[in-house]
Amino acid sequence: MNLEIDFIDETEKVKESEITKIHELLQFAAKKQNLQGEIELSITFVHNDQIQEINKDYREKDQPTDVISFALEELGEGETPLVGEGLPRMLGDIVISIDKAEEQAKEYGHSYMRELGFLSVHGFLHLLGYDHMTKEEEEVMFTLQKDILDEFGLQR
């Protein structure tokens, strides 16, 4: 398994060491999910005003949020999957608000790195099809997130 992650820091606030840690964390999560083959995704770090605009445009919620995922494998009605021999599996894009990560780390009483890790794993699991729309889905997804973060060493 080879997971390629394209990191884009539009805030110029994310340290190289933090990006390296997130890269290692998502490699770990991908192995825990038994992913195979060539896989690609992107993570973009933005400020609250940028994620609020995205949230408004795509979710019709005019407020900042912490993380938004755009899963490329999630097909709408009448859409066709993009597959081809020799092409990597394109999972999609994750957008993380650095401002929200800082706020929530303080609010929850854990490290900024733990919050960045949580948001990255949360977005990653959404790209893989996990959701938390029902109580049952939430329990599965949130247990998996906690297990990944704890095993990796980013406990609360």
The major β-sheet equals: 4 strands, mixed
Spans with pLDDT under 50 lasting ≥5 residues? none
Q: Order the strands across the largest sheet as they lie in space.
A: 1-2-4-3
Top-tier CATH class: Alpha Beta
User: Which structural class should the secondary elements be placed in?
Assistant: alpha/beta
Rg computed from alpha carbons, rounded to a whole number of angstroms = 15 Å
Shape annotation: globular
CATH fold group: Collagenase (Catalytic Domain)
Q: Per CATH, which architecture?
A: 3-Layer(aba) Sandwich
Count of strand segments? 4
Count of spatially separate domains: 1
Strand and helix order: EHEHEEHHH
Percent of residues in helices comes to 40-55%
Distance between the termini: 29 Å
Strand content: 15-25%
How many alpha or pi helices?
5
Mean pLDDT: 93
The CATH superfamily is known as Metalloproteases ("zincins"), catalytic domain
Q: Can you give me a brief rundown of this structure?
A:
The chain is α/β, with parallel strands linked by helices.
Question: Care to describe what's here?
Answer:
By secondary structure, the chain is an alpha/beta fold. The chain has a single domain, classed as 3-Layer(aba) Sandwich (Collagenase (Catalytic Domain)), CATH 3.40.390.30. Helices cover 47% and strands 20% of the residues. It has a 4-stranded mixed β-sheet. Strand 1, helix 1 (16-32) and strand 2 (38-46) form a beta-alpha-beta unit. The longest helix is centred in the C-terminal third of the chain and has 18 residues, at 135-152. It is globular and about 40 Å long. The chain starts with a strand and ends with a helix. The relative contact order is 0.18.
